[in-house]
Amino acid sequence: MTDLTPLTPAAAAGTRPILSIRDLSVSFLGARNSWTRVIEGLSFDVAPGETVALVGESGSGKSVTSLSVLGLLDPTTSRLEGSILLDGHDVLKLDEAGMIRHIRGQAAAMIFQEPMTSLHPIYRVGDQIMEALTSHRDMPKAEARRQAIALLERVRIPNAARRIDDYPHAFSGGMRQRVMIAMALASRPKLLIADEPTTALDVTVQGEILDLLKDLQAEFGMAMLFITHDMGVVAEMADRTVVMLRGRSVEQGPTAAIFADPQQPYTRALLASVPVLGSMKGEPAPLRFPVVDMKTGVAGGALPLRSKPDLTAPILDVRDLVTRFDLRGGLLNRRVARVHAVENVSFRIFPGETLSLVGESGCGKSTTGKSIIRLNDRSTGSVRLGDDDLFGLGAEAMRRKRRDIQMIPQDPLASMNPRMTVGDALVEPFLEHRMGTAAEGRVRAARLMDQVGLTAAMLERYPHEFSGGQRQRVCIARALMLDPKLIIADESVSALDVSVKAQVVNLLLDIQDRMGIAFLFISHDIAVVERISHRIAVMYMGEIVEIGPRAEILERPRHAYTRQLIGAVTVPDPARRHLRRNLAVTELRTPIRPLDYAPPARRYEEVAPGHLVMVEG
């Protein structure tokens, strides 16, 4: 018999906090045996059944705080002072055996940001959930399996009885996160710590996870410590909020009060940098984010673009783009199926215009961008850049043409050679395309570093010496070294903190305003897309299902999938905290098709000037 009875209100209520942190300070051992303090004087409580959000930018100490609560910091390289009381136990006075017996899995459990690195790749997900049940609840294996299936059903995994024997790689990102939640719930903890559980997820999957956590908290009466830098998620999830800056709490209180009347400059600056879907209503052109002074919290005006797209002739004309990949298997390694990554995609981009390509992971956005610049050789159709059909060019002609079309990658650190200085990385394409001498390249690189908000002195640094936002700026400077006419920005701001994200978007808009460059902006962040776009194309299962002017797509969406995407966006409004999206919970459809599969005929209906919606048949 399964034991998943929710806690009663009486059991969930309590006279003392589940978690009480007082004057917590954390130091790490650094070079030359010196200690660096990363958290200082932190104090806050989490009451039974309450959700407290720890917010702040990367490096503020949020994750270190959560690891301290569970005793997961290396005692040989970290030093903790103050007190952490969790369910009546003083965490800082417990040894490892005491932490396992009283704290981990019993009093508290944790959901990590990246489930794929938290789940063991060679064990079935059912075995990993069962391990938590047998370890913490001394349960027989047969009963543990029944409980594991019930937990997977509770977190809404379709076909749980069958999926329990699958390995982590067989699940999508959102479903892996659900498995992590099931593992955390296995021992029925009184406190659930969620460390950036939705940061890497698509907007609809994020919405599903947030709704799930709300429902489970109401059902089990758990307290929750929610760690995030997404203020929309904070507004939707948290009863109270603790704002952190450089290891200190600068403000804390009821979430509604902090959003309505933030007292500290940093809190005001953080909220002013949040992109809000719908804030562009009535604006005819892309709009820069307000420039916020992080010390005073004062926001300047949000300036619109002065320049307008040149609609005379497109700089990029994509027609019937198809990209498919063969899958092989069996003893003879024969073709057994085919991935239909991109199907009959067509669009145009004009000089000085930004077309945003939006959709969930796996829909074909990035493959479209890579296919356009011929980073794979499995594409058909027509891609014209100016007067040239890129698919008809030879290798040398295509190499020369790449001067006109550059890419800003999603992961800037992985795209740069760690053994080259940033200066050498910038000058390399300048020399490769014979645009001048090395000295001229250095002068140009120094000027571009200044234009992207860095300094010429930074040219001598290596990539690892920059922050994430600075590395993204370096990649922008590298793309500009060749005076391109079109830049493909592939999820270029998705992993950045809210204030850095606003700075990078403003930088891209400044470059477009000044140089007239066109952008293909690939993203799943609809609120950012609203700020930067002239037009939007929505992709689903490798196809564009809707394309048109920004206002038409966001304010009058016609396709069901577009409406689902927009409806899943978090809004930084605490008044919406108890709303549910009622999203259907399903695994993402697969683009893998049999070898003899013929895509159905599609046609588009123009529902407004320039606004096209796919119609099947």
Summarize this entry quickly.
The chain has 617 residues and is α/β, with parallel strands linked by helices.
Fill in the keyword field for this structure.
617 residues, eight-stranded mixed beta sheet, Rossmann fold, six-stranded mixed beta sheet, 25% strand, disordered N terminus, alpha/beta
Walk me through the topology:
Blueprint: H1 9-12, E1 19-29, E2 35-46, E3 51-55, H2 62-69, E4 78-86, E5 89-90, H3 96-103, E6 108-111, H4 115-118, H5 125-137, H6 141-154, H7 160-163, H8 173-185, E7 191-195, H9 203-220, E8 223-228, H10 231-237, E9 240-245, E10 248-254, H11 255-260, H12 265-272, E11 316-329, E12 334-349, E13 354-358, H13 365-372, E14 379-385, E15 388-389, H14 395-401, E16 405-408, H15 412-415, H16 422-432, H17 438-451, H18 468-480, E17 486-490, H19 498-515, E18 518-523, H20 526-532, E19 535-540, E20 543-549, H21 550-555, H22 560-567, E21 592-593, E22 602-608, E23 611-616
Parallel strand pairs: 3-8, 3-9, 6-7, 7-8, 13-18, 13-19, 16-17, 17-18
Antiparallel strand pairs: 1-2, 1-4, 4-5, 9-10, 11-12, 11-14, 12-21, 14-15, 19-20, 20-23, 22-23
